[in-house]
Design a protein that fits this description.
The complex is a heterodimer. By secondary structure, chain A is mostly helical. Chain A has a single domain (about 80-305), classed as MetI-like (MetI-like fold), CATH 1.10.3720.10. Helix content of chain A is about 75%, strand content about 0%. In chain A, helix 7 packs antiparallel against helix 10, helix 8 packs antiparallel against helix 9 (about 215-225) and helix 10 (about 225-240) packs antiparallel against helix 13 (about 270-305). The longest helix of chain A has about 40 residues, at about 1-40. In chain B, helix 3 (about 110-125) packs across helix 4 (about 125-140), helix 3 (about 110-125) runs parallel beside helix 5 and helix 4 crosses helix 5 (about 155-170). In chain B, strands 6-7-8-3-9-10 form a six-stranded mixed beta sheet, sandwiched between helices. In chain B, strands 13-12-11-14-20 form a five-stranded antiparallel beta sheet, with no helix packed on it. In chain B, strands 15-19-16-17-18 form a five-stranded antiparallel beta sheet, with no helix packed on it. By secondary structure, chain B is α+β, with helices and mostly antiparallel strands. In chain B, about 35% of the residues are buried. Chain B has nine helices and 20 strands. The chains are: A mainly alpha, B alpha+beta. At the A-B interface, helix 8 and helix 9 of A face strand 6 and helix 3 of B.
């Protein structure tokens, strides 16, 4: 009996350890280890070989150095304007897209949170519905809508609003449309989850104390929904910054986003070390907002307790 | 003698004074929520300085009526006047009314101080003045030391005080309180009850309280209105409602009451006799002008109005019946007896334990006489 209990306790402790270790193991295998490999490659020189980069350690007899390490790739990133421009442009597009998503998504999330339970489920379903179609297909669909003889141009010409088709596709505009369209649900869902929890009594209490509807929004709803705004914004901003498919399909030649640059470097130039350096820098740029997010989440759990 | 009468006339409550002007006038107000009539043609006058309770079971429309007063709901018909001004179409943020919410609705992202100051800031009052008034209010509700705390660091009772201070700081003409004590535990509730009365006394604001708790309403209120299914049933002082309920619902809602149905068998200009078959007794009661022989009515008698004795009592105005002690309970200051009559009806009687004794005066299965005075028979005609 006693030893049984003892065994049970040991099993409990082991199980608890496993539960804690499992996600870390997952992150290690699928995130940290690949990153370590990329990080390592970013210090190599490109060569025509298989794999196409110099090894960090070389213990073979022919090698003149057993350890080879270069910062050339990073130096190149600093010297060549292309990368600066790509990063900045990505940053700008991601930032503006996030703002647009917030402007469009906030009223939608608010309306869904305030709708009756039946309507709320229907509306949420409609928000999630596009995920049932492949992301790639949906971006292709936008090509059909935005192209020179696409739906929009045909419509505008047929009602006589314009004579010549507008150049919509292969522009920054099309990239914004694509990103906002694709990432809007990621803004709406966390915002909704936050707004639906807000106690409507607080709004009425503010009204009772003399606040007009706009003032109530500024004083009560907006500050209390800040966690949702931050979560939604990061969920849009982070993937938008590294987005490749949307600028590749909808963007023009001058829509230099870093994801596209990285792809070109990797597949067209086969310069693995340089693209690894691009990826490493991108990651470092992204770690900052992610840390803010993390910090905020910890704060929020504090505040709920 | 002369002094006494003049005293009485000045202390006469406003609602009995035909010359007094009501402060809040609810005129024929109805609220229809897509076919569900939450409030049905309610008319009510509330006077300045009253602590007025709206009492009823959940779903009776009391909260809707309060929300109409606050301006969160618009009445489908009727109108609301406060201090003679029509408030029906005035939005909540422009009404001279403040409300304390059942959930307290204290802003979670603001400190206690900022919560209380909020209403004043919206009025655009100077900073120094806000500070002094907030400090005064926190003093009044004894929350001064918690001024810098955030709501999640406070207990339920403390939150309630913040909510009260926040609602009172704007010096409203009327304070609405939605189930002010429901979220507090029993002991705190009793304490807070008296505190609320004290605060109301000090500042003299008219309080309108919504509650489902009849004890709370009785202790707190100057007057009570009982609502049922959206309609007003009875309005009066706690005493009036307890002693003279107008129907079975009110009688039953306020504590325990024994109800006997019967037919009027004899009437004279002041008294009547009612033949109650379920207890096979003739009950004596006071008659009204409209009482006729053979009228069907219900006699209601409060447990504490019934005397219990081993010997048959004598008295012309007494209603007397016999039974055996079926159950009894000792509650310290009083004992509750359940007496079963020959017809099988169980009557509840409560008696004060005036004599100190470890032995019971009455035991189970003992034969007893129940009697009550003619004044104690409440006649319910509905």
């Amino acid at each position: 009996m006693n030893s049984n209990l003892h065994q049970q306790r040991i099993m409990d402790i082991l199980w608890r350890r496993f539960v804690i270790v499992a996600p870390y193991l997952w992150l290690f295998i699928f995130f940290l280890a690949p990153f370590a490999i990329i990080f390592k490659i970013s210090f190599a020189d490109p060569i025509v070989a298989q794999p196409p980069f110099t090894p960090l350690f070389n213990f073979s007899v022919q090698a003149d150095k057993w350890f080879y390490f270069t910062l050339d790739n990073y130096r190149f990133l600093l010297e060549d304007n292309l990368y600066w421009i790509s990063y900045l442009k990505s940053f700008k597009i991601a930032f503006i897209s996030t703002c647009l998503c917030l402007l469009i998504g906030y009223p939608m999330a608010y309306a869904i949170a305030r709708a009756s339970p039946v309507w709320r489920n229907v509306l949420l379903f409609l928000i999630i519905l596009p995920f049932w179609t492949s992301f790639l297909l949906r971006v292709y669909a936008w090509m059909g809508i935005l192209s020179t003889h696409g739906v929009i141009n045909n419509l505008l010409i047929s009602i006589g609003f314009i004579d010549q088709p507008l150049k919509l596709l292969y522009t920054d505009f099309a990239v914004y449309v694509g990103i906002v369209y694709s990432y809007l649900p990621f803004m709406i869902l966390p915002l909704f989850a936050n707004l639906v929890k807000l106690d409507f009594d607080l709004n009425e209490a503010a009204a009772d104390l003399g606040a007009t509807p706009l003032v109530i929004f500024r004083d009560i709803t907006l500050p209390l929904s800040m966690p949702g705004i931050i979560a939604g914004s990061l969920l849009v901003f982070i993937p938008a910054l590294g987005e490749f498919v949307i600028p590749a399909l909808l963007g023009g030649l001058d829509t230099l986003m870093i994801g596209r640059t990285l792809y070109d470097e990797f597949f067209s130039n086969r310069d693995w070390p340089l693209s690894s350096a691009v990826a490493t820098v991108l990651l470092l740029i992204l770690v900052l907002p992610m840390m803010i997010f993390q910090h905020h989440q910890i704060n929020e759990t504090d505040y709920q307790e | 003698m002369v002094e006494e009468t003049s005293d009485q006339s000045t202390e006469k409550p406003a609602w009995q004074d035909p010359a007094a002007k009501p402060f809040i006038q609810i005129e024929n107000v109805s609220k229809d929520f897509n076919g569900f009539i939450a409030v049905n043609k309610v008319s009510l006058d509330i006077y300045q300085g009253e602590l007025f309770s709206i009492l009823g079971a959940s779903g009776c429309g009391k909260t809707t009526l309060l929300r109409i007063l606050a301006g969160f709901e618009r009445p489908t018909t009727g109108r609301i006047l406060i201090d003679g001004m029509d408030m029906t179409n005035i939005p909540p943020y422009e009404r001279p009314i403040n409300m304390m919410f059942q959930s307290y609705a204290v802003f979670p992202h603001m400190t206690v101080e900022k919560n209380v100051a909020y209403g004043l800031k919206k009025e655009g009052i100077a900073k120094e003045q806000i500070q002094t008034r907030v400090a005064e209010m926190l003093e009044l509700v004894q929350m001064t030391e918690f001024a810098k705390r955030k709501p999640h660091q406070l207990s339920g009772g403390q939150l309630q005080r913040v909510a009260l201070a926040r609602a009172l700081v704007k010096k409203p003409k009327v304070l609405l309180l939605d189930e002010p004590l429901a979220a507090l535990d029993k002991k705190l509730r009793e304490h807070t009850q008296f505190e609320l009365m004290n605060i109301q006394d000090q500042i003299g604001v008219t309080f309108v309280v919504v509650t489902h708790d009849q004890d709370e309403a009785m202790i707190l209120s100057s007057r009570i209105v009982v609502m049922h299914k959206g309609e007003l049933i009875q309005c009066g002082t706690p005493k009036e409602i307890y002693e003279y309920p107008i129907n079975r619902y009110v009688a039953d809602f306020f504590g325990t009451i024994n109800l006997f149905e019967g037919n009027v068998s004899r009437v004279d200009d002041k008294t009547m006799e009612v033949e109650c078959k379920e207890i096979s007794t003739t009950v004596k009661a006071l008659s009204s002008d409209t009482t006729r022989v053979n009228d069907q009515l219900t006699i209601a008698v409060r447990p504490e109005k019934i005397s219990i004795s081993k010997e048959a009592p004598e008295g012309e105005d007494l209603s007397i019946l016999k039974g055996i002690v079926w159950d009894l309970g000792y509650y310290g200051k009083l004992s509750i007896y359940k007496v079963r009559t020959e017809t099988g009806k169980v009557i509840q009687v409560s008696a004060q334990n005036r004599i100190r004794s470890a032995e019971r005066v009455l035991e189970w299965d003992e034969e007893v006489y129940l009697s009550w005075d003619i004044q104690s028979s409440v006649v319910l005609t509905e």
